[in-house]
Design goal:
2 domains; 8 helices; seven-stranded antiparallel β-sheet; Phosphorylase Kinase, domain 1; about 240 residues; about 40% helix; about 20% strand
């Protein structure tokens, strides 16, 4: 069993160890125990599940909901003029609000950096969990103008081989209360994601030469210039990232 298969199985693993006796779960748990990266991923997933469970326990269904549902079932055979859609009926609105709270909590946890995350860890987690680009353009100058309007840090001079890439779009993000920029590129069906932070906002190694690390299926490279710190994240592989830089 590899990490991808283990993650697929463990995504259904309930907090508290209730599924540990299942043979498939046991094999996936063993994989997580062998691989420190998988173990860290499982710990984050379990923390997320516990947080959502705790939030759900705080939500009480509205009084009389059971009786209202049963009454609706009994009345379903009768014709009622101008009936509201089920999702617009007053008895369902509190549940819709509760669902919105839980979904909001889930989205926040998925995209928020871990308390002690480095910029590289934040960048890899952000790409791994999926994201959207509010500004799309193949013109890097257009993207830099938009980032400037959003008060995001602007890349000064990307390595020369970035000129060979096709720009996709950009967005700004919050990292530890500071604005950082994300500019995305593509070449040969592979995406390259460049995070840009002001050096004072993302302390770390101040090396002009890139440093590389691998995390799961992603490769991350980080380097600095006189104003900014950069983190490049891609699933294209170590060779492709090194050739680009």
């Amino acid at each position: 069993m590899n990490n991808t298969e283990a993650k697929f199985i463990l995504s259904a693993y309930r907090p508290g160890g209730r599924d540990a006796g299942d043979p498939a779960m046991a094999e996936a748990l063993a994989q997580a125990a062998r691989d420190p990266e998988m173990g860290a991923w499982l710990a984050r997933e379990q923390a997320h599940g516990n947080a959502v469970t705790a939030r759900l326990r705080e939500i009480a269904p509205p009084a009389g909901l059971r009786d209202a549902i049963l009454a609706g079932v009994r009345a379903s055979g009768r014709d009622e003029p101008a009936q509201r859609a089920w999702w617009a009926r007053p008895t369902w609105l509190p549940l819709a609000a509760a669902a919105a709270v839980v979904l909001g909590l889930t989205a926040w946890w998925r995209l928020a950096p871990a308390r002690d995350a480095t910029m590289e860890e934040f960048a890899v987690d952000f790409i791994d969990h999926g994201f959207e680009l509010p500004k799309h353009s193949a013109d890097l100058a257009v993207l830099k103008t938009w980032l400037g309007e959003q008060h995001g840090p602007l890349p000064e001079a990307l390595p020369a081989k970035f000129a060979e890439l096709h720009a996709l779009g950009c967005r700004t993000l919050d990292f530890r209360g500071r604005e950082i920029s994300l500019v995305c590129f593509e070449r040969g069906g592979k995406e390259f994601h460049v995070f840009v932070a002001r050096r004072d906002d993302a302390p770390g190694a101040a090396d002009a030469a890139p440093r590389f690390l691998e995390r799961g299926k992603f490769v991350a490279a980080t380097w600095t210039d006189s104003k900014n710190r950069y983190v490049l994240v891609s699933a294209a592989g170590m060779d492709a990232v090194k050739q680009l830089l």
